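hey can u check if this looks right to u? its 65 residues, i copy pasted from the old doc so theres a chance i mangled smth
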Amino acid sequence: MRLLNEGTEVSRPTLAREVAGGLYEVLPTVDYDPADEEWELPPGARVRIEKRKAKDGDYFIAVNP
């Protein structure tokens, strides 16, 4: 999950569960603290998942539906 207001581009790995028709619900990490990190899409948000390519392999990113 992309973190906002960090001063540099940074993301936090997290999990999601499929809810229906390609929509997923973002799940919080064990140490999620909204006072410490501002997630682009917070836990509970419904998202779609897109596969992206990077030098060290593929990864998935959450996007607004």
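The two ends are 15 Å apart (CA to CA).
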